[in-house]
Amino acid sequence: MRIKEAIEQSIDVKNKILSNNNLIQLIEQVANVCYESLQNGGKILFCGNGGSAADAQHLAAELSGRFYFDREPLNAEALHVNTSFLTAVANDYSFDEVFSRMVKAKGKKGDVLFGFSTSGNSENIINAFKTAKELEMITIGLTGESGGKLKGLADYLFNVPSSDTPRIQESHILIGHIICELVESRMFKKAEG
Fold first, then answer.
1. What global pTM score does this model have?
2. Fewest C-beta atoms under 10 Å: which of 22, 66, 73, 87?
3. What is the side-by-side strand order in the sheet with 76-78?
4. How far apart are CA 161 and CA 171, in angstroms?
5. Which tens digit of pLDDT belongs to each residue from 43-80?
6. Which long-range contacts does 164-169 make (Cβ < 8 Å, 24+ apart)?
């Protein structure tokens, strides 16, 4: 039955993540990087296309809104939520430039940029990472198994052990939720109790 098969495939990918100590440690490292950036007055930016854009926006909202408990908002934003900007830049320049121009406008040294691309080859994400590097931002890539071109540009890379787009995206949101939880609990230790 396809329903059970899809669920089993999702569980299988997550079990591969669970048994990969490097990926587990990377989640902790990235949560620490985000915490340090926020503590130092930085911000966390997110970008992605399609379903990955939805994931990027979802995680930005977890940080800027609330997650497990009521607390002050954190400086986090998805770069694609201003549709006037997005369509103007895509029209006047190129869709490949939509995220890099926003990174240039909003990013500064020490800020964090998350880029979601299941293939790791989305040109607008790649260009955003190149701009972020020029600004001395910290880049975090969430991709599928190969890592694609982002593999060489990301300071930290979560290359989910799968080549199946839905299974990769399900794991991206799991990893992102864990990072949000860790960041929130460190930023607001007193409120957590």
1. 0.95
2. 22
3. 76-78, 44-48, 112-116, 138-143, 156-159
4. 9
5. 999 999 999 999 999 999 999 999 999 999 999 999 99
6. 164/9, 164/13, 165/51, 165/118, 166/6, 166/10, 167/9, 167/10, 167/13, 168/13, 168/118, 168/143, 168/144, 169/51, 169/52, 169/55, 169/118
